Every structure is written in C-alpha cells, then in structure tokens.
Amino acid sequence: MDFTKQTYCNQVTSYIRSLIRKGTLEIGAPVKEAVLSEQLGISRAPIREALQVLVQEGLITSEPQKGKHVRQMTGKEIYDSYVVAGILEGAGVAESLPLWTEANMETFRSVVRQMEGKISYATKLDELAEIDELFHATLFMACDNTRLVEMARTSCATISKYLYYQHWITMFTPREYADRHHAVAEAVYSRDVKHVETALRDHYKETGLRMAQFGKEA
C-alpha cells in the first residue's frame, strides 16, 4: 500500500480501521507494530502514533505486559452502549422536532425515499450502511446541542461501524431494516415528541439486544 509521508498517521489509522471493519483484524486479536511495519513497508513511528489514536477512539485496548489488541466487549457493554444511544438520540430529536420547518420535514422525507429506493434492490445490510448514517444524521438537523449530538453519534458507532460491523450487517434482512426505520419515520411525521422518543429508544434497544449476543461473557 502506498503512503504519503505527510499523512502517514492518518493513512495508517484508516488502514487499521478498515482491517477491523472487514474482520481481517478480529475482535481480541493482537495488534503488533512490527507486523504492521513489515506489511506496510514503513517505520514504526507513524504506526505507533496511529495505534494511539485508535486506543483513544476505543477500537484498540492497550495494557501493560499484554500489549495492544482489538477491543473486545461484553454483551452488557454492547447493549448498554445502544441503550445510551437511543436515550440521547431520542432526547435530541424530541427537543428539536418542534423547531422543524416544513422544509426540514421534506428533507427528511427525501432521505426516507432514498432509503426505500436502496432497500428495493439491496440484498445485504452492508448496502444500506451509508443511508443508515444519513437517516440518523438527518434526524439531528435542527438540534443545536452539539455535545448531545456528538455523544449520541459516538456512543455505539465503534460497535456497528467497526468492531462488530460484520455482525451488524447480518442482523436484519433489508425488509426488517425497512420496517424498523419506517416505524421511526412515522413517529417523526406525527410530530409527537413522546412518540418519537419512544420509537428511537425501542429502535436502539432492539439493535442492542441482537448485537449483545456477539459480546464476550463477562
């Protein structure tokens, strides 16, 4: 793989993330600087820097005497992360939904239509990963509490986007995925903030329950 010297760290970080996402670096697997250095044909310094970034992101753990490993989570940690995401997203959307203009609502409807179009020919959930991200990001379009948005978007992002992505893409059929997101969309269309908050909490709880089965035993 070719690397530009000025951006070694960023490129190595992205490379390792991709290995985790694809399952090439499995949950709990050791991550060794020497091996990566040999694979990439670069010195250890940018690799060490990249690994520190990934430790801070929660994708890799680092322990004295044990070294660095791809993070492994218990089922409860996974479930709790999704519950927190549902609480935060539900609160953020419920707070900002009364501020939505008709233009905001039409933007959301447009995203739902895009989602429906992709679902019509999708055979696997990984084909819907981008529209899933857009769907949830659009729900926050009128929320000005940037800290809440950041916490909501990151509380389970490392799980579904990277660590357990290969499990996430098998959890629901495209049809099940559609039904779950339509339930949230219908709640939004109603403009009933309590309904929206409940729908989002339930949405994340169900995902958390399914994902938790892939966690390690406590």
UniProtKB/TrEMBL annotation:
<feature type="domain" description="HTH gntR-type">
    <location>
        <begin position="6"/>
        <end position="73"/>
    </location>
</feature>
<dbReference type="Pfam" id="PF07729">
    <property type="entry name" value="FCD"/>
</dbReference>
<dbReference type="InterPro" id="IPR011711">
    <property type="entry name" value="GntR_C"/>
</dbReference>
<keyword id="KW-0805">Transcription regulation</keyword>
<dbReference type="InterPro" id="IPR000524">
    <property type="entry name" value="Tscrpt_reg_HTH_GntR"/>
</dbReference>
<keyword id="KW-0238">DNA-binding</keyword>
<dbReference type="InterPro" id="IPR036388">
    <property type="entry name" value="WH-like_DNA-bd_sf"/>
</dbReference>
<dbReference type="GO" id="GO:0003677">
    <property type="term" value="F:DNA binding"/>
</dbReference>
<dbReference type="InterPro" id="IPR036390">
    <property type="entry name" value="WH_DNA-bd_sf"/>
</dbReference>
<dbReference type="GO" id="GO:0003700">
    <property type="term" value="F:DNA-binding transcription factor activity"/>
</dbReference>
<dbReference type="InterPro" id="IPR008920">
    <property type="entry name" value="TF_FadR/GntR_C"/>
</dbReference>
<protein>
    <recommendedName>
        <fullName>HTH gntR-type domain-containing protein</fullName>
    </recommendedName>
</protein>
<keyword id="KW-0804">Transcription</keyword>
<dbReference type="Pfam" id="PF00392">
    <property type="entry name" value="GntR"/>
</dbReference>
